[in-house]
Design brief:
single chain; alpha+beta; 2 domains; 4 strands; two-stranded antiparallel sheet
Length: about 180
């Protein structure tokens, strides 16, 4: 998609040393007040297309866009659900498993945290997600808060063995 921005005005400093500008300075030095010429219309083209994705999106009507957005949301939810299932599918402390949305990935060592797994796992490459999840432990919302407050001790992270096993499984969603 290309965005065209047309601007004209004194705030635009392009072409400030043109001959017309120089002539205006010379006349001012001679005591003659000459208005400075306004710069010509300047066209700035921002190219934001990545492999034609924006072009394909632009061809969709409103209903098709809505369906596509819903499909992407479903795919992301499924990927996060699959990741939580791979991590055991339940709280490591109390084995709570009734609601997947109530399960969080807790970083055992916050200093090694690159991104929040529960929030960003669906938009990153799976190798990155698995590497980050290996530093975490799956906890229910209650125990996650207790561990963060220091009330409950954190279990050990999933680790490299889990990561190696997880990399063998096929992940992703083709839509």
């Amino acid at each position: 998609m290309q965005v065209r921005v047309l601007s004209r005005g004194p705030d635009l400093k392009l072409g400030a040393w043109s001959s017309g500008y120089d002539a205006g300075l010379q006349n001012r030095a001679a005591g003659v007040r000459v208005p400075l010429p306004l710069p010509k219309l300047v066209e700035v083209v921002l190219i934001t297309s990545i492999d034609g994705m924006d072009k394909r999106w632009a061809r969709l009507n409103t209903e098709q866009r809505k369906k596509r957005q819903e499909a992407v949301m479903r795919c992301r939810a499924n990927r996060l659900r699959k990741l939580k299932e791979m991590a055991g599918g339940k709280c490591t402390i109390c084995e709570y498993s009734r609601c997947f949305r109530a399960l969080d990935f807790h970083h055992v060592d916050p200093a090694t945290k690159k991104f929040a797994v529960s929030a960003e796992a669906t938009t990153r490459a799976w190798k990155q997600v698995l590497a980050e999840a290996a530093k975490c432990v799956l906890l229910c919302a209650t125990h996650h808060r207790e561990v963060e407050e220091g009330i409950t001790l954190s279990p050990p992270p999933l680790g490299d063995e889990w990561r190696a096993k997880a990399e063998q499984e096929v992940l992703g969603c083709r839509t």
